[in-house]
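Structure ticket #2291
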Amino acid sequence: MFWADKLLEGREGSEWVNDAWTPSGIIHMGGLKGPVIHDVLYKILKSQGKDAKYTYGFDDYDPIDGLPQDLQEKLGSFMGIPVYLAPSPDGNGTFGEYYSNIMRDLLTMLGLSAEIYLASDYYKAGKYDEAMRYVLDHVEDIRKVYSEMYGKEIASDWYPVQVICPDCGKLGTTKVTGWDGNEVTFECSKTLVKWAEGCGATSKISPFGGNAKMAWKVEWAAKWWTFGVTIEGAGKDHASSGGSYDIAHKLIKEVFHKEGPLRVPYEFFLYDGKKMSSSKGLGLTGQELLDVMPPEMVKFLMIKTEPNVAIEFNPFGTQIIPKLFDDYQKAAVEFENNEKTDGARAFELSAVGEVKIPPKFRFLTLAQWVQMPNMEEEIKKEGLSEWARYARIWVERFAPESDKFLVQKELPDVSGLSLTQRAYLKSLIGLFEKDINAEELQTEIYEKSKEMDLKSVDAFKAIYTAFLGKDHGPKAAWLLQSLEKDFLTQRLSKI
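Resolution: structure written out below.
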């Protein structure tokens, strides 16, 4: 049984699937795994006739606590400000809107079904007010959970709440120091964190209506409690033993006295053994991944293995992307044949809208075709135009040098060819007067080598040297037929 079907087996009642992300930077491809996994679970629940909903939140109330190097000078003064209040890197709208819009576009491309919400809207509309009061009234219980999880005493003046300072607008620099049942006392500290400096203000303020935000681990549990979330996974950075996911589950059970959602921990995508990170330049961004493969295949990549299995994905100078195309096509065939395989199920669940069967044409062969002259009509005739776009991007950005070639305008250095190889090349001229297809031409050039007692490997090496300046290349007949007849005969005559 496919892992997602097994995970949901035997569940009863209505379901609320939730996921969330802080819009504070460009999302790397690993950041798409969560929303895709949650969407697949939601899709299965709906197919079972369940009363289910799927929400995806932008945690735009979180403060800016780090910036890429190129934005530090421009936006450094906004460190500590909630992302929904800080200005956009491009000067249009807010910081949170800028990155949220990028993510929205990616989610749309992937055909995900989630209802989008903003944490700032929820806070300002008072949807967290009841949870905020509950958290402040039960702060001792929360401190106890934290003490047990961290193995150390939590200070008696610590509150899992921060306010937006009315004087400087910062959230990340404020510390709540008391709660009287209506208002919290706070200070905007100059030294609370290393990445931002507060203004030093001290005052009292109501924590409701968007004036304050719960600490995110507490907020996580409060969200489950407030909305009745039944399914929410987490990446390895949060779901490791004793991590924030565990704390949130302990809080929902021991403080809010409610069962937590179904646990769905998922592993990282790795880049040369390291966790992918856009800020560190490790791996691809979500957009870069969608540039080089269709959205269905992106989803297939995310779900074809169980979530708790790490996936190594370094596409630069490797065959990892062509192999994925092969795997996707194999899974499509299994689906067509009604085979009950995990691949067939992953293919089905990866669909964006109606299930579409991909072309039965190897990606690596297509990557060769897009490098040959005069192949556009053949590509169109075979119905490969869409995939050809991905093949071109792969060749340009990712392909190993061994998979790249270029027909040389001038005769390359052929001094290394033997007299027999040179004679063989000249003997091919007559073949281009025949009206034959590529398969027939491939047979003819092979038979020519046998007639001249020339090893086939040396024959094809001669062809590639004469036209590409390399000792290897694509299928020779297809390469030759992509060239103009006059160019062919002139080139071979010069050998």
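Closing remark: The CA atoms of residues 187 and 456 lie 81 Å apart.
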